[in-house]
Amino acid sequence: MLPEVVVEYGGIPTAKYATPSTEEVPLSIKDLVKKTDLIVLERHGSLTMGKTLMEAYLKLEKIEHTAQVTLAARQLGQVSTLSDEDIEKLRKIRRSKTDGFFEIDCVNCGACGKTVNVSGNSDTESPSIDEKKLIEIIRDEIQRAVSNSLT
């Protein structure tokens, strides 16, 4: 619906629902975090990542802005989505700016009526040792950044 989301981020995927405080949460995003740094967590909220806390925050602002525009459009009636042709034009612009970094075909937001699971996770997967270590590092860095911002 918003051209700048396609050009700037390639789309905003939605990770499937995961039970809070369980290993399901990192499993629900593990494939997506390799490809994008903006993720909506179904029935939880959103996750954004950046080189700095401010960069991650600004990406969060973009997700919230997109959600507000989508909500307002829905309240006004039928949502006008971008055509496949328009999206392809925007993707060409993105590719020229980003060397073709990850593009998301469907963000699973329901605005266009498409519902595709973009996470590709299996319910029976368990993370490898390297992935578990990565999860610990990310958690520790987030806690450190939040602690530093409060002092």
TrEMBL record:
GO-annotated biological processes: pentose catabolic process
The keyword Metal-binding appears for this protein: yes
Keywords tagged on the record: Lyase, Metal-binding
UniProt GO cellular component terms: cytosol
Entry-linked InterPro entries: Aldolase_class_II_sugar_metab, Aldolase_II/adducin_N, Aldolase_II/adducin_N_sf
Keyword set includes Lyase: yes
Gene3D superfamilies associated with the record: Class II aldolase/adducin N-terminal domain
Residue span(s) of domain Class II aldolase/adducin N-terminal: 9-70
Source taxon at top rank: Bacteria
GO molecular function, one term: metal ion binding
One Pfam family matching this protein: Aldolase_II
Name of this chain's protein: Class II aldolase/adducin N-terminal domain-containing protein
Natural source organism: Candidatus Schekmanbacteria bacterium RBG_13_48_7
